[in-house]
Amino acid sequence: MFGAIALANWQAGNPGTTTEKIYMNCSTVSSKFLRSMAQKEGFLYEECLTGFKWMANMALKKHAEGYTCLLGFEESIGYMYGMNVLDKDGISAGPILSAKAVQLYQEGTTLAAFLEAQYVKYGRHISNNSYFLCYEPSKFDQMFGEIRDGGYPESVGRFKVTAVRDLTVGYDNNYEDLKPRLPVCPDSHMITFTFENGCLVTLRTSGTEPKIKYYSEIVRSPENPVPEKEMRAELDELVGAVVEHLLQPAKFDLKPRPS
Predict the structure, then answer these.
(1) Contact, 134 vs 255, CB < 8 A?
(2) Contacts of 75 (CB under 8 A, 6+ apart)
(3) Separation between Cα atoms, residue 107 and residue 86, nearest integer Å
(4) What is the rounded CA–CA span in Å between residue 217 and residue 31?
């Protein structure tokens, strides 16, 4: 919603201006909704590592190149609306959403309906993100060692892997040179799998807590809509396979997220 609101507000204040110098970014574990928007609307979209220092610095760099940054966001509910505050800032984001809610109310509709309209326009995006606890860091090394040893898995359960990006060792077969475009971080584990069905799953250890996190998303284009229930079922099945075959909670003594 914030991406659509930011773009609409900018277009209202800049009638007739193209979007080629508009810019939005988000962390690489976040939803790819802004990417879908950018492909349709023609603005520049980039991903970065987790943390608003990355988003803010990238926004500053693009600003120096003549771009206007409208939004940066992190999947764990953090927003950098515009460039007045180059950090996570709910104080400025809150009134923006509130103003939109009031506008929609006056028009006889709701934020929920507005969100559904964005799905119709840009495609439905569904995420399933969570974590496991582990108080023995050496087990993270063992887990990711198994994933890497002998080559990355070609499939997880019934789901075929089509691409792998490993920011720990600096490998990314999305590119011919096999080098990732994001910074390599050898002190932490982070692997992203792209699957044949278009799903993405990232496994990442936390830098501040005893957690192994997983981030997953399924996307279906507006040209080929799929019922939300079917999408959720497919994503849940994939996440279940990732947990069973890659994370292996029983083997590595992982504790599920407290309910």
Answers:
(1) yes
(2) 26, 27, 29, 30, 31, 127, 129, 215
(3) 32
(4) 7
Please give the backbone phi and psi of residue 78, each rounded to the nearest 5 degrees, phi first: -135, 135
Angle made by CA atoms 255, 207, 33, in degrees to the nearest 5: 90
**CA 92 – CA 35 distance, rounded (Å):** 23
Are 153 and 147 in contact, with CB atoms under 8 Å apart?
A: yes
With 90 as the cut, is the pLDDT of residue 76 above it? no
Q: CA–CA separation, 9 vs 62, rounded Å?
A: 20
Pairing of strands 200-205, 211-220: antiparallel
In this prediction, residues 46-56 reach a mean pLDDT of 95
Instruction: Please say if the pLDDT value at position 217 is more than 90.
Output: yes
Identify the band that residue 259 occupies on the pLDDT scale cut at 50, 70 and 90: confident
Q: Of 197, 180, 189, whose CA–CA distance to 241 is shortest?
A: 197
Residue 33 has a pLDDT of 97
